[in-house]
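Two folds, back to back.
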Amino acid sequence: MHPQEVSFVKYQGAGNDFILIDNRAGHFLREDTARYQRWCDRKFGVGADGLIFIQDKAGYDFEMVYYNADGSEGSMCGNGGRCAVMYAALLGIITEKTNFLATDGPHVASLMPHGWVSLGMKDVDVIESIEGDFFTDTGSPHHVRWVKDLANYPVSTEGEAIRWRTAYQPGGTNVNFAEETGDHLLSVRTFERGVEAETLACGTGVTACALVYASQHALRGAQLVEVQTPGGMLAIRFEVTDKGFRNIQLQGPATAVFSGKLIDKF
């Protein structure tokens, strides 16, 4: 085995943490998933909820390629997307605004004051009702359940059971447990597939909960829903139209934690 030094920056967005690597030279291949799982391992690697490569893409400022902590290539990650934007700014690829490509399509984003990023999300047309719960896709699939006493709710056991439901296979789903704590104010906890555990925040998940909230309250027009997660506060701005939810913006922090070099053997 030949050791290789891999430069990275660790970012977190509301406690959702990621390894960010500049892969514009194309050194790292999409299929090398066991390697990426090892990097994300909290005992044998850097430790992260996911890994993000920044890559060149014609017609865009960059491409975001995302891997879950288990090494599988993931669907859209909202908190990761904001961190990718902040990392692209650090690399000098962008300044205040960007147009980048992710697995669910193009995204626009802009830097905000105080280290926040506003990330444009995909339009959402449909929210399904499932046995008293809800399901929607905000770039990643999300099951949403309203609960009481969220702080003491068994997120891990209930989340794992729903994540593996036959109806959601083979890909499975993320699972969000939400509680309404005020006017346009929610608390949300999330069990994430690919991490296979509760994370401190999930950007696509809080977006899903905000849209379900708007649907349940029959809201119309421009809306702002704030969401408290275990890792911090996030905000979702959107418009409710006759065709569904449009101009969705996930807003929240994206903070560099540390930089370093992986000593990788392959």
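---
second:
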Amino acid sequence: MDTTDAPADPQLSGNVLFYSQPEPLSNETHAKLGLRRIDRPFAFAANAQAVPLTVTEFPLAALSYPIIFAGERRQPLAVMGVSGEANMFIQPNGYFEVGVYVPAYIRRYPFVLANDSAREQLVVCIDRAAPMLGDLPDLPFFDPAGQPTDYTRNCIQFCNDYETELRRTESFVTLLTEFDLLDVRKTTYTPTNPDGSQAQPQEVAEYFAVSEDRLKALPDDKVRALLDNGAISQIYAHLTSLMGWDRLISIALARQAASQRPANLN
């Protein structure tokens, strides 16, 4: 993909979480620019309660987060925080907790593909406001001859692969919609009063999820279609992931209790 003749004003489409100053990657504008190794490298995602997922990420993401569908487009999301909490999986040092899956949406940052409506194609962009960008970089974008470095080429390939996965995800969601498998679901928890009694249940989230009853009621030909294209395994990864709500709520309640605990005055 060309990085030397990009449009001046690309348009990001869809969810643009994290990207505040996208610029077309150019060997003229960004000749000396690149990635620097910084402290707290994932701090840019610290306030994200949910992050987009592609369907092929479901099995790994399900081990760490509830996977839900949201909005009119039924966008798959990995839920990372509840009850006003930010991303509960990023540590104070700016790294993800060990063993937690990091979604591709986060790993591709600060690169992204943007739509050039004039030429009807996607162009490579970077978020110029990203804290890890700077001159005298550890990983330069371009070599002295003005050609993309291996690092840049790998990032561009990652973005291209991500776009392919987005198309696959759209097809997956379309199939769920056509088979009428998505239903509104709510997650609640019941807090405990100071006297030990149970308070009224409180709603944590409302979202779309696959209905197991509707899935079981599908005719054989539709079940076979889900099996043939591999969608059934992704569906069950999603359903299994919903058990992670209890974990998220427990973490949020523990942190809330810790923040309300009086300081040790001894």
